[in-house]
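Pilot study result, target chain (167 residues):
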Amino acid sequence: MRTITVAKADSNLPLQAIVVGRSADEFVAHTINLLGDYGVEFVLCDDVYSAVGKLAKSESRNVLVIGRLGQLSKEQGRLFHMARENGYTCCCLADADLVRKRKQILTAIETGAFVINEPAEIGQVVTKLLAGGADCPLGKKANDRATASIKAEFLTTKAELDALLGV
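Predicted structure:
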């Protein structure tokens, strides 16, 4: 496990990451390599339950939890709600069977999590967080980052999918 700390420009606290999944998972391996390239301290957790334990022990509010949507959405998305309440940031990869995961995606978006479609997009999220982007400052409630336009776009897409499926 690599543990390197990078100071953020707008905070005395470094960005820390908790990666949820197995190291053999292609997305997890890509994420670990990317975090190493950025010099971000990270911890690998096999499942969401051990990730919650790491979050409970974290002394920093500059924490990014990364994993697949299915992993992070267990227990009705409690991790997303806990992250929002404590000012943590989540980023999850939405897998191909999105139709069955509509509720999970909506929960993630409503709590301010970044939902990405491709593993390569994780680099954009990390870069934005390290730069302290105005639209996603760490230390603020994650719900503040989920803009009305993103929610509206998702709800429009959801309504279109429902119409196509006859729901």
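One observation from the pilot: The helical segments are 26-38, 48-57, 69-72, 74-86, 102-110, 122-131, 148-165. A full batch analysis is planned for the follow-on phase.
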